[in-house]
Amino acid sequence: MTMLARLWAWGECAIEALNRVQPAAQVLARWTVAEAFFRSGLTKLNDWGTTLALFADEYHVPLLPPEVAAVLGTTGELVLPVLLLLGFGGRFAAAGLFIVNAVAVASLNDIAPAALQQHVFWGSLLAGLVLWGPGRWSVDRVVAPWLRQRLMGEGEASSRYTAAA
Fold it and tell me: FRET pair for 67, CA 20 to 30 Å: which of 51, 55, 95, 164?
């Protein structure tokens, strides 16, 4: 075996090892983002008066009255992370949190560079979950093909819902 062939074989082993940890990495990404947004939602819910004041004075959410924006934002921060963590409607939950994240950044007049970096990090993880799905260790992996078969009468196509199948 030539040196180049050994390197190639080593590369294939490394790729196989990385492929085996993909589901765990996707769960970690889902957990990281879900925890941050869920904690933010709980904080808003625990002091609703301050939340309404923040939406009225600090956050400038376009097109929505502050009270409606507060309810929608808090609901999104409490419901979507649970769905994302379970991987139930994983792409929908990731897309919803991506929008919540983008609106949060857009609604602040002045955002600290470190906070902006955190939002960029979360946005990057969410974009990856939208594009590649919640992964093999998700509820979608089990429920979506079953639901599709019930609704459309077609055979299983589990890889359609989670790219890392």
Answer: 95
